[in-house]
Write a structure and sequence with these properties.
heterodimer; A: mainly alpha; MetI-like fold; 0% strand; elongated; B: MetI-like fold; 76% helix; transport (chain B); MetI-like_sf (chain B); transmembrane (chain B); cell membrane (chain B)
């Protein structure tokens, strides 16, 4: 009964579990967010088990099956459920392998942009003064260019290809993270708990990464999901323009570029890769909306 | 107000210098010899090579090259296209009206549908209209517009045969360019059917380019409206017995429009990025297609000039939006 009078000290593990339960409560209130989350999870599974799920090799050309329509259409064949492209490759298999590329692009781009943006933003916000001014002016310059245009020009400099496209997109998306981190750091750094830590003798690095950063994470996570879908869209756009992944890579944007000349003859070679991009991006955005509602205390209305 | 404007302008100077450094640096960081790179597979003789190096100023120190570049910019010299040998600025100005026409139509469409949809969704929060329109907006926001454009071509040009696939107007019509806007020029020409042809060419690209701004504007309008509708003065107005329509239309909408106008202004960058894709799909002879073509043709002066002009343009539009924002919201001015 002593617990009733003296609150027991809460272990950090219990606190974390509590926070997670809280989070899931708010997140699951948004039906769309939960649907988006499950679709995304399904895509991850598809990407991970692509070799098991895909009926054919994504680059294998069936010379007797050029532009075969999907199975439900006249002339369709059951071995090619979603039909084949102009050189006889199975579209379903290419889409399944394409999931690997899209998710990989999203993860890599967001990781680079997030880590880079956090470090830059922390430095700018923590040190202030001329360091801050210089850094933020550079970010302004990057943001002054339409993102896709800057990414295109960067890829033109670096040379077309998936890796360069990812680097370019990460560079273009990174200022958003830097700005958010800086703003959060500026508002946090004069709060009591930070001053207390400073007085207790915490060093700069500890203050930056252990004291302040964890309290700035919510907007960064929300921006992260947004950037994840943006990265997939931009990479697909670069692929479509011939500047991203190069054929015969089964990247969805690149598949669309290859399919362009057949749009009036074979609707399926165009429709399915785009649908895959749309569903993936939509799922991530749905989940992102839910994340924002769950993490942004301003929108929490109980 | 003047001080506010001057402060905003002063703030832009370093950004603009940064943009010129990026545009200048872009050609310099290309790996390899710049002249050989521009010459491509044709190659050049050693004498011509030295001559070109001197002509382009590559034999001087880098800071001198940059100052020379700035000097040129200040005198309206944005370089010369390697392909057409015309000044880049002139090329840009010739093609810009096409992009402007498309962009204006797209933003008008986005505002005309997005704002009312957002307001209605906020007023009828939780209704089927709210859910349907916001669901649609999220789909639009997630749309790979290059694919969306191809789908529309399949449906409206391929299956239904209603709209042409590419270009700004049918080749049957020819008239001098007066304003550069095909809609106006075709009317001025007085030729029968010219205007209808221009409209039919414009419809699909406009829809494609408007998709993402429309979704963003609808979502932003709804959330701004919801925020304002929860304010005390709105409740007071309702309590006074004013009809809902008047409260929403007069009291709430006016204040909700402030963030919406900012959002609309910020769409200019989105529109420019969208124009690259839209113009490529519909072979629309504007800036976006020109930039892509220039990149593929390795016409680096054109890419350099285009990059600078587009970024400068986006910056100026953002400045105007900022100033408008200060004009309608005095709190910002005195901050």
């Amino acid at each position: 009964m002593s617990n009733a009078t003296l609150p027991a000290p809460i272990s950090s593990g219990a606190m974390r579990r509590r926070a997670l339960a809280d989070f899931w409560f708010y997140f699951s209130e948004n039906r769309g967010a939960v649907i988006g989350f499950w679709i995304f999870l399904a895509l991850v599974v598809v990407a991970l088990f692509a070799p098991l799920l895909a009926p054919h090799d994504p680059t294998q050309q069936f010379r007797d099956a050029l532009l075969v329509p999907p199975f439900w259409q006249e002339g369709g064949r059951s071995e090619f459920l979603l039909g084949t492209d102009a050189i006889g490759r199975d579209i379903l298999s290419r889409l399944i392998y394409g999931a690997q590329y899209s998710l990989f692009i999203g993860v890599v781009v967001v990781s680079i942009a997030l880590v880079g943006g956090i470090i830059i933003g922390l430095i700018a916000g923590f040190f202030g003064g001329w360091i801050d001014t210089v850094i933020m002016r550079v970010m302004d310059v990057i943001l002054a260019f339409p993102s896709l245009l800057l990414a295109l020009v960067l890829v033109a400099v670096l040379g077309p290809g998936l890796v360069n496209a990812m680097i370019a997109i990460a560079l273009v998306l990174q200022p958003h993270f830097a700005r958010l981190t800086r703003a959060a750091v500026m508002s946090e750094k004069n709060r009591e708990y930070v001053i207390a830590a400073r007085l207790a003798g915490a060093g700069r690095l500890r203050l930056m990464f252990k004291t302040i950063l964890p309290n700035c994470l919510a907007p960064l996570i929300v921006q992260g999901t947004l950037s994840f879908s943006n990265a997939i869209l931009d990479a697909a756009a670069l692929g479509f323009l011939g500047m991203g992944a190069q054929p015969p890579t089964p990247e969805w944007g690149t598949m669309l570029a290859e399919a362009r000349e057949f749009i009036l003859r074979a609707w399926w070679v165009v429709t399915f890769p785009g649908l895959a991009i749309l569903i993936t991006v939509l799922a991530i955005n749905l989940a992102g909306d839910g994340l924002r509602d769950a993490l942004d205390p301003k929108l929490k209305r109980s | 107000m003047l001080r506010f404007i001057l402060r905003k302008l002063a703030y832009l100077v370093p950004t603009f210098i940064g943009i010129t450094i990026v545009a200048f640096g872009f050609v310099r960081v290309l790996p390899g010899d710049p002249v050989l790179l521009m010459a491509g597979e044709r190659g050049v003789s050693p004498e011509r090579h030295a001559q070109l190096m001197a002509q382009l100023g590559f034999d001087r120190p880098i800071w001198e090259q940059y100052l020379h570049y700035l000097w040129g910019l200040m005198h309206g010299d944005f370089g010369t296209s390697l392909i057409t040998t015309r000044p880049v600025l002139q090329e840009f100005m010739t093609l810009f009206p096409a992009t402007l026409e498309l962009g204006l139509c797209a933003i008008v469409l986005a505002v005309l549908i997005g704002v009312p949809a957002g307001v209605l969704a906020a007023v009828k929060r939780g209704s089927w209209f709210d859910q349907l329109s916001m669901g649609t907006a999220l789909v639009g926001y997630s749309m790979p517009i290059f694919w969306w454009g191809l789908l529309l071509i399949i449906l409206f040009s391929g299956i239904l045969g209603w709209t042409p696939v590419s270009g700004r107007i049918s080749l049957l019509y020819y008239f001098p360019s007066v304003t550069g806007f095909m809609l106006i020029d075709s009317l001025l020409s007085g030729q029968k059917g010219a205007f209808a042809s221009a409209v039919s060419h414009l419809v699909l690209p406009t829809i494609v380019l408007a998709t993402i701004p429309l979704a963003v504007i609808a979502r932003q309008t709804r959330s701004a409206m919801l925020e304002v509708l929860g304010e005390d003065y709105v409740r007071t107005a309702r309590a006074k017995g004013l009809p809902v329509r008047r409260v929403v239309g007069l009291h709430a909408l006016r204040n909700a429009m402030i963030p919406v106008i900012t959002t609309i202004g910020l769409q200019i960058g989105v529109l420019m990025a969208g124009a690259i894709l839209t113009e490529t799909i519909f072979s629309w002879p504007g800036i976006g297609k020109w930039m892509i073509d220039s990149i593929f043709r390795r016409d680096y002066p054109a890419v350099q000039g285009g990059l600078l002009l587009i970024a400068g343009l986006v910056m100026i539009v953002n400045l105007v939006v900022d100033l408008l924002y200060g004009l309608i919201n005095p709190r910002i001015r005195h901050n």
